[in-house]
Specification:
The chain is an alpha/beta fold and 344 residues long. It is built from 13 helices and 13 strands. The chain starts with a strand and ends with a helix.
Length: 344
């Protein structure tokens, strides 16, 4: 008999694509997709259950279906899509606690795979060149999804101690990119003119969405248990990434960048939180040796290759040079006004 897999967060792109992909594997008997809203894509071969993992019915669902593997993709990285920071915390941390509680009670559960984020490491001027999985952040994330990821992983480690018979795999992904991929970082990079932190050009690593799916598939079927960084080899600097998209950029002081989000309409759908500005200042590098040597997963795309695939499918800027020059002038005027205001 094949295995029964429960996948959370199937209404979003990655969760839906993974559920549909794993359902085609002959080693899998059934896939149950779980979310509070219906998926946006056709989940062929997946039984969709509309439910909230906060609800006690989840424990019954796991028990009744003798779920063997739980793949948790339900965390949300942005307050905008969650309906505010309070709702985001509820979805990410509290819901994860409830899911882990249900898994702890279910004796059928033998494997847990959790999608986490490299944002758990934060970004600071004291960071190592490459973060290894057993390293602690030099500056602990104090807000946003990075803080949620720290708490989520803490609860996952607690679950692993209480259920040592369950193989637990946590995947810390670099920023995901791919054709038509839309995240807060890709929205930022696709601005007609990209505001960067003056005097800094941070190193960035990316993971192609196909490799993200591949790592999940591998971990679900045969991956070793533990915590693993997942990213493509090599790095790009922020300026290199912006140039590959054919966008101009303008350097501004950090305090000005944080103010632009509320002053420039085009930036209101972009994450310019303190956490993100630190990342756009100092960047982040990941050591992926354990991903290859212990987890046994080899990504198809390097960081530059993954980003180029995203750039080739990126929405065109649709801005002529005259309009771009005008927007740059407007931003320069706005920056001057913010500086004047800050000196008062």
């Amino acid at each position: 008999m094949g295995r029964v897999v429960l996948v959370t967060g199937v209404s979003r792109d990655l969760g839906g694509r993974f559920a549909r992909c794993i359902a085609k594997d002959p080693a899998i008997e059934r896939v149950i997709g779980l979310d509070v809203v219906p998926p946006r894509i056709d989940l062929a071969g997946v039984r969709f259950v509309r439910a909230d993992i906060h609800h006690p019915v989840i424990a019954k669902l796991i028990d009744d279906n003798q779920v063997e593997t739980v793949v948790h993709l339900g965390a949300i990285a942005t307050p905008i899509s969650a309906g505010g920071r309070t709702s985001m915390k509820e979805i990410n941390v509290i819901a994860t606690m409830q899911l882990l509680g249900a898994c702890q009670q279910a004796r059928s559960v033998q494997r847990l795979v959790v999608k986490s984020s490299a944002r758990i490491y934060g970004s600071s001027p004291h960071d190592p060149a490459l973060f290894v999985e057993n390293m602690s952040p030099r500056r602990m994330p104090r807000s946003g999804f990075g803080k949620d990821a720290v708490e989520i992983e803490g609860y996952v480690r607690g679950f692993a101690r209480r259920r040592p018979d369950v193989r637990v795999t946590t995947l810390r992904y670099a920023n995901l990119v791919g054709p038509q991929t839309e995240t807060l970082l890709t929205r930022y990079l696709e601005l007609p003119i990209v505001p960067t932190v003056l005097g800094f050009d941070p190193r960035l690593q990316f993971c192609h969405v196909d490799d993200a799916l591949g790592a999940l598939h591998h971990s679900t079927l045969a991956g070793a248990h533990g915590t693993f960084n997942v990213a493509g080899d090599h790095v790009l600097t922020l300026v290199q990434a912006v140039r590959r998209l054919g966008r101009p950029h303008i350097g501004v002081p950090p305090f000005v960048l944080s103010s632009l989000g509320s002053l420039v309409p085009q930036l209101r759908q972009v994450d310019l939180s303190a956490e993100q500005i630190s990342f756009l200042t100092y960047g982040r590098g990941l050591d992926t040796s354990a991903m290859r040597q212990t987890l046994g997963f080899e990504p198809r795309f390097t960081t530059p290759e993954a980003f180029d695939d995203f750039a080739n499918g990126s929405r065109p800027g649709a801005m002529n040079p005259q309009r771009a020059a005008e927007l740059e002038r407007q931003m320069a005027d706005l920056i001057a006004k913010v500086r004047t205001y800050a000196r008062r």
